[in-house]
Design a protein that fits this description.
The protein has 120 residues and is α/β, with parallel strands linked by helices. The chain has one domain (2-118). The chain is built from 3 helices and 5 strands. β1, α1 (15-25) and β2 form a beta-alpha-beta unit. 20% of the residues are buried. The model has no long low-confidence stretch (mean pLDDT 96).
Protein backbone atom coordinates (compact mmCIF):
# COMPACT_ATOMS: atom_id res chain seq x y z
CA UNK A 1 0.00 0.00 0.00
CA UNK A 2 1.19 3.50 -0.86
CA UNK A 3 0.09 6.28 1.46
CA UNK A 4 0.35 9.58 -0.37
CA UNK A 5 1.06 12.35 2.14
CA UNK A 6 1.53 15.37 -0.10
CA UNK A 7 -0.25 18.45 -1.41
CA UNK A 8 -0.95 16.55 -4.63
CA UNK A 9 -3.79 14.01 -4.38
CA UNK A 10 -3.16 10.91 -6.45
CA UNK A 11 -6.25 11.63 -8.59
CA UNK A 12 -4.20 14.45 -10.15
CA UNK A 13 -1.08 12.38 -10.82
CA UNK A 14 -0.01 11.54 -14.34
CA UNK A 15 -0.89 8.14 -15.74
CA UNK A 16 2.80 7.21 -15.56
CA UNK A 17 3.09 8.06 -11.87
CA UNK A 18 -0.18 6.34 -10.96
CA UNK A 19 0.71 3.19 -12.89
CA UNK A 20 4.19 3.01 -11.35
CA UNK A 21 2.79 3.50 -7.84
CA UNK A 22 0.24 0.72 -8.33
CA UNK A 23 2.85 -1.57 -9.90
CA UNK A 24 5.30 -1.10 -7.04
CA UNK A 25 3.03 -0.66 -4.02
CA UNK A 26 -0.56 -1.71 -4.80
CA UNK A 27 -3.44 0.53 -3.86
CA UNK A 28 -2.97 4.23 -3.08
CA UNK A 29 -4.47 5.98 -0.05
CA UNK A 30 -4.36 9.78 0.06
CA UNK A 31 -3.75 11.53 3.38
CA UNK A 32 -3.92 15.31 2.88
CA UNK A 33 -0.75 17.15 3.84
CA UNK A 34 -1.28 19.47 6.82
CA UNK A 35 -1.12 23.23 6.68
CA UNK A 36 2.11 23.65 8.63
CA UNK A 37 2.06 26.92 10.57
CA UNK A 38 5.19 28.89 9.62
CA UNK A 39 5.40 30.41 13.11
CA UNK A 40 5.17 27.03 14.83
CA UNK A 41 8.23 26.04 16.83
CA UNK A 42 10.00 22.69 17.13
CA UNK A 43 7.55 21.46 19.78
CA UNK A 44 4.70 22.22 17.38
CA UNK A 45 6.41 20.14 14.65
CA UNK A 46 7.01 17.32 17.14
CA UNK A 47 3.34 17.23 18.13
CA UNK A 48 2.06 17.54 14.56
CA UNK A 49 4.31 14.72 13.33
CA UNK A 50 3.21 12.53 16.25
CA UNK A 51 -0.39 13.09 15.15
CA UNK A 52 0.40 12.10 11.55
CA UNK A 53 2.50 9.14 12.64
CA UNK A 54 -0.51 7.83 14.58
CA UNK A 55 -2.82 8.43 11.61
CA UNK A 56 -0.51 6.53 9.26
CA UNK A 57 0.03 3.62 11.66
CA UNK A 58 -3.75 3.31 12.16
CA UNK A 59 -4.43 2.81 8.43
CA UNK A 60 -5.27 -0.86 8.07
CA UNK A 61 -3.45 -2.79 5.37
CA UNK A 62 -2.68 -6.40 4.48
CA UNK A 63 0.48 -5.27 2.71
CA UNK A 64 3.47 -3.26 3.94
CA UNK A 65 2.95 0.48 4.11
CA UNK A 66 5.11 2.82 2.08
CA UNK A 67 4.63 6.57 2.55
CA UNK A 68 5.12 9.11 -0.22
CA UNK A 69 6.14 12.22 1.75
CA UNK A 70 6.44 15.58 -0.03
CA UNK A 71 5.88 19.00 1.52
CA UNK A 72 7.16 21.44 4.15
CA UNK A 73 10.71 20.37 4.89
CA UNK A 74 10.94 20.42 8.69
CA UNK A 75 7.67 18.50 9.00
CA UNK A 76 8.80 15.95 6.39
CA UNK A 77 12.21 15.45 8.00
CA UNK A 78 10.74 14.87 11.46
CA UNK A 79 7.96 12.58 10.21
CA UNK A 80 10.24 10.52 7.97
CA UNK A 81 12.58 9.90 10.89
CA UNK A 82 9.66 8.74 13.06
CA UNK A 83 8.21 6.53 10.32
CA UNK A 84 11.58 4.90 9.70
CA UNK A 85 11.92 4.13 13.43
CA UNK A 86 8.67 2.17 13.02
CA UNK A 87 10.06 0.29 10.01
CA UNK A 88 7.93 2.18 7.49
CA UNK A 89 9.62 2.92 4.17
CA UNK A 90 9.36 6.52 2.92
CA UNK A 91 9.70 7.68 -0.67
CA UNK A 92 9.72 10.86 -2.73
CA UNK A 93 8.73 11.34 -6.34
CA UNK A 94 11.35 12.73 -8.69
CA UNK A 95 10.51 14.88 -11.69
CA UNK A 96 12.01 16.69 -14.61
CA UNK A 97 11.05 20.35 -14.55
CA UNK A 98 10.40 21.93 -17.93
CA UNK A 99 10.40 25.74 -17.85
CA UNK A 100 9.09 27.74 -20.76
CA UNK A 101 9.41 31.52 -20.89
CA UNK A 102 6.76 32.98 -23.16
CA UNK A 103 7.15 36.01 -25.42
CA UNK A 104 5.28 38.02 -22.78
CA UNK A 105 7.81 37.00 -20.12
CA UNK A 106 5.43 34.67 -18.29
CA UNK A 107 7.04 31.52 -16.95
CA UNK A 108 5.24 28.21 -17.30
CA UNK A 109 6.53 25.17 -15.42
CA UNK A 110 5.63 21.58 -16.16
CA UNK A 111 6.79 18.63 -14.09
CA UNK A 112 7.20 15.17 -15.62
CA UNK A 113 7.34 12.20 -13.25
CA UNK A 114 10.52 10.13 -13.46
CA UNK A 115 10.61 7.72 -10.52
CA UNK A 116 10.01 7.10 -6.84
CA UNK A 117 13.15 7.32 -4.71
CA UNK A 118 13.54 6.11 -1.13
CA UNK A 119 14.58 8.48 1.64
CA UNK A 120 17.85 7.08 3.03
Amino acid sequence: MLINLSNHPSCGWSVEQTNKAKELYGNIVDVPFPEVDPVGNEQYIHELTDEYLSRIISIQSNSPKVVHVMGELTFCYALINKLKLHGIKCIASTTVRDVVVGADGKITKAFKFVQFREYL
